Amino acid sequence: MSHFLKEHIQEIVTLSDxxxxxxxxxxxxKRFRKRQFLIQEHQHVHxxxxxxxxxxxxxxxxxxxxEHILQFAxxxxxxxxxxxxxKQESSSLAVDCIEDTEVYSIAYEDLNILCSKVPVMEHFFxxxxxxxxxxLQQRILSLMxxxxxxxxxxxxxxxxxxxxxxxKQLIASYLGVSRETLSRLY
Amino acid sequence: MSHFLKEHIQEIVTLSDxxxxxxxxxxxxKRFRKRQFLIQEHQHVHxxxxxxxxxxxxxxxxxxxxEHILQFAxxxxxxxxxxxxxKQESSSLAVDCIEDTEVYSIAYEDLNILCSKVPVMEHFFxxxxxxxxxxLQQRILSLMxxxxxxxxxxxxxxxxxxxxxxxKQLIASYLGVSRETLSRLY
Lengths: 186, 186
Prior knowledge:
Chains A, B: This is Crp/Fnr family transcriptional regulator. Chains A, B: Keywords: Kinase, Transferase. The structure is a homodimer. Helices cover about 45% and strands about 25% of the residues of chain A. By secondary structure, the first copy, chain A, is an alpha+beta fold. Chain A has a domain at about 5-120: Sandwich (Jelly Rolls), CATH 2.60.120. In chain A, strand 4 and strand 5 form a beta hairpin. The first copy, chain A, is globular, with a radius of gyration of 17 Å.
């Protein structure tokens, strides 16, 4: 039995042992090494991932070949190309590992079956989707209206403890500033 | 009985007449005139709004006093400061009417009670939250990596039929370009 998975879900809903037995049977534990991809661009997105250990990023490459980082994620966060997953379309984003990673994955059809078999999971995923929305809204406001210094402060607040685990080049890419500008913000 | 509300919900879930009776009792119909605010900045956000008629925008004012438009919304869309609503914090955004508007509103506590009384509504709101996430992810990708011309094309795709109902000044603000740049994109 995965204590991590149970505790993660129980932060939001209370589960009986029977419910958790069912829930657990829908998740698959997977391990990835640093630099491995969980999702590559332009592919069908089958799964979403709950991170037990590791640090990952979701990013996209523009037409000039430049990488833009949408989000970082670590233990207790979910990551995927959620837009592609929800719409069951091919991915715009790539998701890869900044450190060795362990995740629990659940497939699209399984998520819907799980929600009908264990109704509290519908509530759990509604709340999680709302939290995801909140993080994106904050990211947009930060991108549209804040200075590089304020965006860096938002990053520190949004990702406490991440700073020393993420190469500076990637933090600069997340903030949309050059490596030189970032070094002035530290 | 509101056919609009029932049809809107039934795009995602099937409802019995009894279920819809309960659902309807949780919503309040409200009317606003052009330029009226549904949400003002720095206030507690009690409600989310389903638009029956009208066009609205959500926007925020940066420290220099400049307005940035996050989203437009019309019939069959939901609008609020969702981040503030979900976290029950005060709003960063303002929501106001570009045209005379009719909405159905539901309050935070009522939404949670409704979801426990009529469980299909938990599914309905999970799907809606996922769609909201998708729209924001597309908005971020557009903002971070696309040219003004591509952002304008995204706007046309995202908001079919809106172009002729929204003052050009507001479209320019949504795209993050000047009024002059916008006129070259038309």
